[in-house]
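Let's sit down with a protein and look at its sequence and fold side by side. We need material for that, and I hope you will provide a protein of your own picking. Once you have written the record down, we can walk along the chain together.

***
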Amino acid sequence: MSFGEYVRYKSEGYAHIKGFYSDAEVSEIRPIVERFHAAWKQANISFYQERAINSAYLTGKQFLNSADREALIRFVASNKLMSLAKAVFASQPAFMNTQLFFNPVDESQQNYWHRDSQYHLSIEEEKNALNGPKAMHFRIALADEPGMEIVPKSHIQWDSSQSLQVRRELNGHKSDEALPDTVTLPLQKGDVLVFSAHAIHRGLYGLDRLALDVLFCDPVEELLQFVNTDCLPSKELQAKLEDASAFEATLSCLK
């Protein structure tokens, strides 16, 4: 990450690293992701057809064979991705999760403003969380896509009255309403978008949207309680990884 993008992340809550992965690197990981996606869709067909826009736990054992799962874990623990993660965090990051983002089947389905924390915290707890441990998405675009819309500085600043009512759908507001002073970040294949899970954001649907998110966080129990241990590597695989430190940090915290 360049110094300029690091400064942007610290002040604005996001950093856009263009062309981080080459076409060849994307071509290695995309078929694995597509096999996961096909199996996940088959197992969740009603949810997928009705409203799904993402899935999770790609490094788990349910939908990938052992070779694909190992390759994906190696990708997460590569020196390339871990060097970027360590450049963003002030301390050793811990592995939290993987997610896959795609277009809804229903093209009329609206996207929605949110902070990730709103799904498990009260409004007051959300507000306090802005000063707490960090969780961050490292979004890897596997195809050109419309990208993301984000409210700059919202990873450290509390909502305006308008944004709170919109994302929480208070007083008759809807979470798909437009907000002022946002930034739109279209992504090209191979780009990485780093953004805070605390930030107010929404994904933009369209094109052949397929984005792999790797989530890292500060190694604290309050965040790592959400980790699915089925997604972590065995000790034998850990020993073969280029940089297993994020997985090691997670496992140490869970002991």
Notes: The first helix runs from residue 3 to 12.
